[in-house]
Amino acid sequence: MAVTATNSDSPTSIFFKGETGRNTRGLLRLIILCTIAAAAVASRLFSVIRFESIIHEFDPWFNFRATKYLIQHGFYNFWDWFDDRTWHPLGRVTGGTLYPGLMVTSGAIYHFLRFLTLPVDIRNICVLLAPAFSGLTAFATYLLTSEMSDSPSAGLLAACFMGITPGYISRSVAGSYDNEAIAIFLLVFTFYLWIKAVKVGSVMWGGLTALFYGYMVSAWGGYVFITNLIPLHAFVLICMGRFSPRLYVSYTTWYALGTLASMQIPFVGFLPIRSSDHMSALGIFGLIQLVGFTEYIRAQLPSKQFQTLLRAMVLIVFGVAFGGLVLLTVSGTIAPWSGRFYSLWDTGYAKIHIPIIASVSEHQPTAWPAFFFDLNMLIWLFPAGVYMCFRNLRDEQVFVVIYAVLSSYFAGVMVRLMLTLTPIVCVAAAMALSQILDTFLVAEAPAEPSGDATKANGSASSNGSANIKDKLNSAIPESLRSTKAPLVGIYSYLSKSLTAGAVTAYLLLFVLHCTWVTSNAYSSPSVVLASRLPDGSQHIIDDYREAYYWLRQNTKQDAKVMSWWDYGYQIGGMADRPTLVDNNTWNNTHIATVGKAMSSREEVSYPIMRQHEVDYVLVVFGGLLGYSGDDINKFLWMVRIAEGIWPDEVKERDFFTARGEYRVDDEATPTMKNSLMYKMSYYNYNSLFPAGQAQDRVRGSKLPATGPELSTLEEAFTSENWIIRIYKVKDLDNLGRTHQEAGAFGKGNKRKKGGKRRGARVLRVD
Amino acid sequence: MKVLQALTALLPLGVFGAKKAATGDRFQTYHSKQLSAGGPVKIDDKIYAELTKGPRDYSITVLLTALEARFGCNLCNEFQPEWEMLGKQWAKGDRNAEGRLLFTTLDFLDGKNTFQSLQMQTAPVLLLFPPTTGPNAKPDGAPVRFDFSSGTNKAEPIHSWLSRQLPSIPHPQFVRPINFLKIGVAITAVLGFITFATVAAPYILPVIQNRNLWAAVSLIAVLLFTSGHMFNHIRKVPYVSGDGKGGVSYFAGGFQNQFGLETQIVAAMYGVLSFATISLALKVPRMADARTQQIAVFVWGGVILGMYSFLLSVFRIKNGGYPFWLPPF
Amino acid sequence: MRLRVLGLLVGLLGLVSALSAQGNKLLVVLEEEADKSRYSQFWSSLSDRGFQLTYRSPKDTGLSLFQHGVPAYSHLLLLPTKAKGLGPALTPNLIVDFVNAGSNVLLTLSSEVGIPSAISSLLLELDITLPADRNSLVVDHFNYDTKTAAEDHDILLLPSPKQANNAIKDYFSVDSLVAFPHAVGQVLGNASPLLSSILKAPSTAYTYNPKDDSGDSLEDVFASGNQITLVSAFQARNSARFTVVGSAEALEDKWFDAAVQVPGAGKKSEKTGNKAFAEKVSAWTFKEAGVLKVESVSHYLNEGPQSTLTNSSSALGQANVDLNPTIYRIKNSVHYAIALSEWSGTHWTPFTPAAADSVQLEFSMLSPFHRLNLIPSSQTPTATIFTSTFTLPDQHGIFNFFVEYRRPFLTNVEEKRTVTVRHFAHDEWPRSFVISGAWPWIGGIWVTVAGWVAFVVVWLYSKPAQPKGDLKAQGFRR
């Protein structure tokens, strides 16, 4: 595809000359872009075809639920939505604590289709939203890249990279109805608009940037990335002495309007002027005013001393402003960096202070295979592209460089931020590859070099850091070493064909890789698990939905379900039952309470559960199936989070054996064996096995011969493969005994005669 | 050191006095000693025994530590100054001992028997003996043990822990003294840097503004990060580890872990690949001589092919099920 | 809770004849037919009150407390038996299940016959402790019947039981002495809030085992004085009642109309109040007295158009009231009303709590945010309406209107109504121009707008300055 694209520009074809040529090229571009979009959508449909049109994973279930609420009750009720079915009994001011962009988007689409008398089920809209927007993302990438590079093929290449690269597919397959689904498109498009604005320097483009920035803010918390990247770009440009009215106009427009727009979102509110995450934008706004002023003055009266004075003044004011900012932060007027964001810089921070953040799997650092897995060959084309940006360092290419360095750092620290890295990788890689293709796919003999290369070269020599001409000009070359010599071109067809062939092969390999990764790694809706039977046939493990539907059909409408927070959204979405905690981890204490209940003895947990009116407790247990993502493996996080609040009642140390091992078998510590989580996981488990043969296939350890006893809970439901186990919380004993006593009496063993009480006699007073 | 000598001089007397004195005096003695010493009292087996024996109307914390270099207990040595500071401030905090809390340090050299009797494998260990008599007495005089396993070597957690354990006594504030030296150093450094910058500006500026420099820097940064350097930094992975049979395994098995060396190899591969690309794209078309250009194309093309296929093969090591490969490897 | 409601339903069915609020099928377990005649007056008084008595022997094979899994009888009366146990049909577990199913038990003990171990282990589950040895009885050298027990002092004469404090309603007082022959003293555990003693031994009483002559039983007495309870009442969480009468003989005919005399000069013989007492105890046990019912619970927003309803008691009936809404807003003013009625033995009457007692309402999330005394505002023929009006706390969440009224000798009332308290909606805040503090800022906005417009006008109609292009160029390379 990419190859044809480049072919369409190669001067070989005489049909593509002059006016008609431009039209044909335009048409071809359009067709190619459409095909790319089609490919992007198609490659995301594996899961729908294989399983069904179902919402994936965890967060999407909440978004789906919220969208349904929006459809049902209208926008304003959604805006003021107080959700009394999560975070029982606290409830959640949902309308004010979410990014409404996603729901509103799909709601708008829904109503639009209705208006067109196309009654489409909202679920299908939600499922297919991400693929649809991925098509748009490809288009936006095309626009962005075309701004970056002179080569006409770069844009198309970038578009098709963006369309199929796993790094982006991972969060945008059909059914993963998450904020990122639309946010990435907005990210890329906002950057495109910003670049355009800086190039043209018009208020309109700046305003558009602000508009889409506002949309981005309403859609994803990752907007902070833009909020800091654009000021950084502006700052670097100023430092490079490239301040220009264009920059001034575009930045001020963007900042003023964008900030106003972002403050319209309740969840963001006054953050843009109150929190450190946004202070860089504000500071640059101030700085750019100063610089603009000085530039103006300088232009008016060219007096050397006065200029130096001015420059000094700028520096001083900037310094003072910065100091004031720091002071405000210290004094607390400006909120310090938000935890999630701060943990990006101080990588050890989260693990100590915010275990919840550290506990999320997608907040872990990225190992190199993940990079290669998600970006395949782009990952090594990427540095080449970045390097080529230095060839003629125009404003927008500066942007590419900054973006590249920053986002690769972020992606290195957090797996999920691979998402922000992917677009720039596609852009840079496309620039590099298109350079090669443009060079090697020129048919003529190198008598006269191809047009754009010279232009590029010429521009390289023309601008560039010109202010060092006066001193040490000879010592240091002003342009890149690799581009000093004049451009000649490729002589032999052999080398041309060889390189072209090789590149084509790599591209095909890339396509294969992407398809393979998508179909194997990123297309399973972790709600339904698929496993291969010995004979290779696929076997669907549907325990989650089995259990959730059991809850939906066999429990009271308002039966409170206690589980670890990972399953909160799913229970809310699929089982439609109130939960104590869910994936919106806004209340550490409440989560710690659940953690404490899970990790303490029954006598301790029961009062907690009574107090929170818990009716059912749900645990995930993979021991029978070897499903490693179960609660026993997450257990230590519960303990840590609980320990953060009750350091004297829950101690992580007590769950490790003397040799510091985390065991579930005979050597397990008493604390471990008595913890509610352990009991609930292994209750009745060894009834499946011949005596003493009970085996945990995840931990790969043999379990104690006698299983744990439960007195305050009774088993209500266990799914087919024992992945989900649901327990009912018993009511208080009718005769006012403890549950242990009641159980003992029920089993028929007598209580010791009270007559022979030892010790001092306690007298009853009425 | 002088303090220590003074203490050792005092010890027998102190013990003697305490032997026939009531517990109140026992506490008074050591509290005054603590005040004079300006920090936790250094004790040995005997004093430990008679301080911790019940009935106590005061609470006592004992830090069992091994400061000698030959024990190689880093945590002990890191924690010692903090401990001193805490004890000092606490003693100053309630000078007239309303809290009735003693801070003592028992080094392994002076307290072998105690260490043995407590079957201590690791140091440091912080024990808190609550009072057995008096208003806020615990029924059993059993000591509470602070858990150092979380790698604490600061005084604040200890302070909060003590405050939690002894809720009903006054808790003097713990304030970390301001390190003026550090601040001064920082300020001078900044000023020096500024002056240097202003003086050397004309010579440095071009270097700073040199494009190749920036290109190199950003490329290196990108290569580092994309080859999983941050993972090593955060997870503190080993640089390289040996396989079972004496050899060295350069690549960690499994998708989710890696070695330091491994990432460097990968970074190098990426570097070579992208450099080859750059050369193909920029250098080659600028070669005047057709023959050299031909050769260059072959060489770079070959390099890319080889490296890429090697990269794929390495990736197949990490991810068993990966089906794709390229010729030589 | 559900069990209690069920019990009440059964009661309404049986209401036609019986005085009990729960049902009229009473199972009497006694060993020989011979014993039956000894209690004839008691039986007649019971059957007069509309109970269908069924007499069974514990050995009877056809005897079963349950039928198709539900209690076959709503009441059970156990007379002392000589056997060690009560047979397969009356094992402690079965009796506990019977009680858990909401039925009531009246258990009578006798030191003459001795206490089966099954009984004592059953009572232990209720936290009632009996003397270790089967035959020990309660002796009092100051309050005994001089006529019959001049030697043994084991027939106690007790004044009419009265409650310790006036926060507890009195259901058991009689107007003459109660004779208690060969009583088995019970000791109530002080942990369980479900226990309460109806009749206590006088402070001079103590337990004593006539069988062993070695006086070591006197060395450590099982219990003495007020700690000995002779008639103890246990009310389970589901309001099923379990009464232990220390002396079965006290229910016999001969004590119903016996004349007794306490020791001491000038004390003359008088008639016992056993008949009345037996009636009262059985009446309470079989849910004829002290049975409460929640007739209705209602709460509504006490603001705007509905604010006038508070004083008019008939608010609940009105059509235009949004009654029992599921959601309120923080700081709303809310009106809550609960109608309680008490069973008088024939019909439901308005309930009035004891003098020093009052019904309380909790408005709670995790912990109570309000705990208010409800005021008896009005009465219907069958119920008293307790009401309160209060302002919701400034805290959103899922709250409960919770009335938990547990008192000795009264069935438990536990009414929980869950409501959501939401935050302010976006349009419920005061508008900016209402807040005087905001005027400077609003003014600022308009000034800026005006300034901008003016600037644009000036700009458009003034001579263009020199082109900005070269300025940029200068700015670019300096």
Radius of gyration of chain C: 35 Å
Basic shape of chain B = elongated
> What oligomeric state do the depicted chains represent?
heterotrimer
Strand order of the largest sheet of chain B: 1-3-2-4-5
Q: Total strand count of chain C, please?
A: 27
Helix content of chain C: 10-25%
Q: Tell me what the CATH architecture of the largest domain in chain B is.
A: 3-Layer(aba) Sandwich
- Strand coverage percent of chain C: 25-35%
Largest sheet of chain C: 7 strands, mixed
The helix/strand series of chain B, from N terminus to C terminus, equals HHEHEHEHEEHHHHEEHH
CATH fold field value of the largest domain in chain B: Glutaredoxin
Please, what is the average pLDDT of chain C?
Answer: 85
Number of folding domains of chain C?
3
Number of strands of chain B: 7
CATH superfamily placement of the largest domain in chain B: Glutaredoxin
Strand neighbour order, sheet with most strands of chain C: 2-1-5-6-15-14-12
The total of helices of chain B stands at 11
Alpha-beta content class of chain C: alpha+beta
Overall form of chain C: elongated
Largest interface: A-B, 79 and 72 residues
The CA-CA distance between the termini of chain B, in Å, is: 67 Å
